Amino acid sequence: MAVSLLVLVIFIPNYLVDKESKFYIQHSSKIVLFGHSHPECAFNDTLISNFKNLSHSAESYFYTYQKIKKVLSQNPQIETVLIEYSNNQIDEKMNDWTWGYEYMSNMFPQYVSFMDKSDIDLLIDNNPKDLMNCMSISTRKNLIRLFTWNYDFSDGLGGYLRLNKVSKETNDAVSNKSANISSVNVEYLQKIIVYCHAQHKKVFLVRSPLHKKYEYLKNEKDFTRIRNEKFSDVDFLDFNKFPLNKEDFADYGHLNYSGSTKFSKWFNTMVNSGLLLNKNKQALIDKSLSDSISM
Questions:
Q1: 3-22 pLDDT tens trace
Q2: Three-state SS for 56?
């Protein structure tokens, strides 16, 4: 009886939500961007042609993977996928973003219906107690979806986030980074890329502009090593050194509206000029940035 009730209350709603879910974006969106708050604040998609920003604050690759499976499968017009690869995304704090209660309680209910057994096993292995609490939250939300016939996830996918504040520059950034790597986050980035290729999409890793004092730039050696070891077959578009003033940052890791406007207009020009089709993409980026600085 207990098992039957469990199936009825948890597994059947998950199955129905997965089957009926809607992740549609504008048909004009040929290029999509996924990532955490860095690209969320950097790429103003109202200024970029045929482009949709689907980044979401504090989203680890574990949850991006669930989202990207649904977005690509339901939007065949998508041709190109950009995935933010920034310095903090290799840090072990991404583990907390994946199974720490604060983050899991927010992201798990949104995407549990699209996870497979290995995804759930990962969470069970690392935080079974809080997972049970999150399962309760997700079950309640799924039942509400069923009762209201609301299977539209479009509003919760992410998007451009406008920040109006200006960074107060200090002598140095306060560091809370570790020296350890999140192998799980790196693994799920690999899974994302494999899935995109299986869907016959062009895939690029990108790094949004960062302030020179951004604390996680201290792991640049490991950041580069992992990219070379794990993602050498994926083009990396590095916009980290895009020329900006201190007034263009909301803080060391995020652009404000002024910075995102400058960057997004430049990025739009570059894409419309054929950046993503060029054989020497980073050389083209570097030349454009060099020309901008010398002007």
A1: 344 445 568 889 999 999 99
A2: coil
